[in-house]
Specification:
alpha/beta, eight-stranded parallel barrel, 10 helices, 10 strands, binds 2-acetamido-2-deoxy-beta-D-glucopyranose
Length: 299
């Protein structure tokens, strides 16, 4: 009798506690990371096995559009022209089996050449992505049979034209596909502004770095918070992530030390209903600086 009473009192205490933990984790943010631009950042499977990330962007498809044959560039990890990137198939599948979303990122700040020159060019690129990286089929899939979860737009050169058409064409193939984008913090973004207006994007990781007018600066969060408010109030997107460099080497400016992120910056932006978490550029710098390990409990 006495022990039964104790059990029911315990469950009265424990059940609400469990429920509140579940609610808390549903509201917590997650960490997105770019992987692929440094051969010394460990494998994709090891990256996912840390459990630190929810979204991993494969960086980058550096050449596409204008009728060009698309080119994947994963730095020292593998050589797509020799077909060796198909060794990533099992890594991608293991990441997905752990609940992570693996997304191909288009563009990037350097290397390659990309630009869409018409709506039909955008449709051709969508067809190519569907057949070679998503659920379609092709005899020359660069990552083998792995089916990626979505496409990320990191457009930082060329023109803003027709990216909205590309996004809409991809969503027509599969409305469940994750479409994400990495604009820079000056609003609206020079290359992604028009595409973002289509409302096709699920997650937007804004680059709050290399842009002093809208980033963190030695203890001063004013510019970053003002820009965050603009991004979270100005367009049709479900979630905005704070994109930051994972070490001082990762960007020219905008690095936020882990303690300053957790004590100063996150409390100022986490009240937003559109807060999704943080994006780190990139896995190599995160590994070098042990950044995600230090902040993940607060994201
Ligand atoms: C535009 O792209 C198409 C392929 O989609 C290509 O055939 C054509 O030459 C390009 N046009 C210009 C003006 O670059
Ligand atoms: C971290 O925050 C402290 C307290 O506001 C500030 O004095 C310091 O400059 C910040 N450090 C950096 C590197 O931003
Ligand atoms: C990385 O950070 C975590 C959390 O602060 C800490 O426990 C761990 O020892 C750190 N690892 C290294 C190699 O500094």
């Amino acid at each position: 009798m006495a022990s039964q009473t104790r059990i029911s009192i315990l469950s009265l205490l424990i059940i609400p506690l469990l429920l509140s933990l579940l609610t808390a984790s549903a509201q917590a943010g997650s960490i997105a990371v770019y992987w692929g631009q440094n051969g010394n950042e460990r494998t994709l499977a090891e990256t996912c096995a840390t459990g630190n990330y929810r979204y991993v962007m494969l960086a980058f498809l550096t050449t596409f559009g204008n009728g060009q044959t698309p080119v994947l560039n994963l730095a020292g990890h593998c050589n797509p022209s020799a077909g060796t990137c198909t060794r990533l198939t099992s890594d991608i599948q293991s990441c997905q089996s752990m609940g992570m979303k693996v997304i191909l990122s288009l563009g990037g700040a350097s290397r390659g050449s990309y630009q869409l020159n018409s709506t039909s060019d955008a449709q051709n690129v969508a067809d190519y992505l569907w057949n070679n990286y998503l659920s379609g089929s092709s005899s020359s899939r660069p990552l083998g049979s792995a089916v990626l979860d979505g496409i990320d737009f990191d457009i930082e050169s060329g023109s803003s034209d027709y990216y909205g058409d590309l996004a809409k064409s991809l969503k027509q193939y599969n409305s469940q596909l994750y479409l994400t984008a990495a604009p820079q913090c000056p609003y609206p973004d020079a290359y992604l502004g028009p595409a973002l207006q289509t409302g096709s994007f699920d997650y937007v990781w804004v680059q709050f770095y290399n842009n002093p007018p809208c980033q963190y600066s030695s203890g001063d969060i004013t510019n970053l918070v003002n820009s965050w408010k603009t991004w979270t109030s100005s367009f049709l997107v479900r979630n905005v992530f704070l994109g930051i460099p994972a070490s001082t080497d990762a960007a020219g400016s905008g690095y936020i030390p882990p303690n300053n992120l957790t004590s100063q910056v996150l409390p100022a932006i986490q009240g937003s209903s559109k807060y999704g978490g943080i994006m780190l550029w990139n896995r190599y710098y995160d590994l070098e600086n042990n950044y995600s390990d230090q902040v993940k409990g607060s994201v």
